[in-house]
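ok so for the tutorial part 2 we go from a plain amino acid sequence to predicted structure tokens. step 1 is just haveing the sequence, like this:
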Amino acid sequence: MSKKIVILGAGYAGLRALHELQKEAADIEITLVDRNEYHYEATDLHEVAAGTQKSERIIYPIRDVVKNSCTTFIQGTVSAIDTEQQLVKLADGKTLSYDYLVVALGFESESFGIPGVDEYSLQMVDVDTAEKIYQHIEEQMKNYKEMQDENALKIIVCGAGFTGIELLGALTDGKKKLAEAAGVDSEKIRLYCVEAVTRLLPMFSEKLSDYGINKLKDWGVEFLTGKPIKEIKEGSVVYLDDKENNTLKELHGGTIIWTTGVSGSHVIGASGFEEKRGRVMVNPDLTYPGRDNVYIIGDCSAVMDEESQRPYPTTAQISLKMGECAGKNIKAQLRGKSTQPFTFHSLGSVCSIGNTHAFGEVGKMEIKGYPASFVKKAIMDRSLFETGGVKEVLAKGRFDFYH
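step 2 — the prediction. this is what the tokens look like for a chain of 403 residues:
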């Protein structure tokens, strides 16, 4: 009798697990569920938000990678998971039963309870929200032509994490185009970044992170670091300017983008999993404690790094490795063999600041400038290959290495 395997989410982790399981010769029935009909490269969302990349360049149909002989794709939204009954509930009322479950539901924006975030800021969590950010920026540029309000030319990025920095880099690339839309010189487009901490990008050496931040400053980005955000209002960001005197200040801008942090899917908590910010501390083999047929991977999973004694950060590189591990472990279980613990050795990390500039680490070597940009695009093509194969790399790959 065939075994039913359900995969929830067609992001990096979910599709990598799918690829591994579709190699299995055993009698299995795979069901893949995602709310979109397409997979998108989440690492490229900042370029769509800045208008430097069209959304169709970072997506491809999920059905392109589905092997119809063993896999059924359902476009639907997951509402709950019942591990007791081994059922997945969808928003349309349908239920799916499983023998093995892979939960790879991705991330959501985290407001940290700060007032006004949901109401007055733009959040970049998927293709639709990234497109809405650029549409909003374009509208602000057009509004400036009519109203001559300088605030319409101000773009505020809340958060100086990896995502925020890459977004600022893409926005500097797009300033000329935005200035033309507003009918002003590009210097009139003001980019701000408000961040609570002073040591930015701690995953890199201080020298390397300073290189990237100083480049952005040279290109006109204004950083307000050590300024915790207290509230988002319509058209302004309220931040703590002086901790000793509890002095607040307000920065006005026509576009406010929230990139301060993410959590795992709310479905995790709603389904009764033991979690923190939508992430579950899983067993070494990526299964949920007490449920050896339920794998939680990607942004919903917390796996302890034995060296640092902290959970690994949520990155595309780690998600791909988790997907591969989960797929192999399920195949081992189908054959009556033992599962293997998840292991991860980083190949490095590169942060882009525009299309032809980047900085980061490859192995133990620090790289920056154009060479780092070349490596970044090669990394992006590799992740595209691991989810979509050769076909998608040829169709959507980044081959603009020289410009």
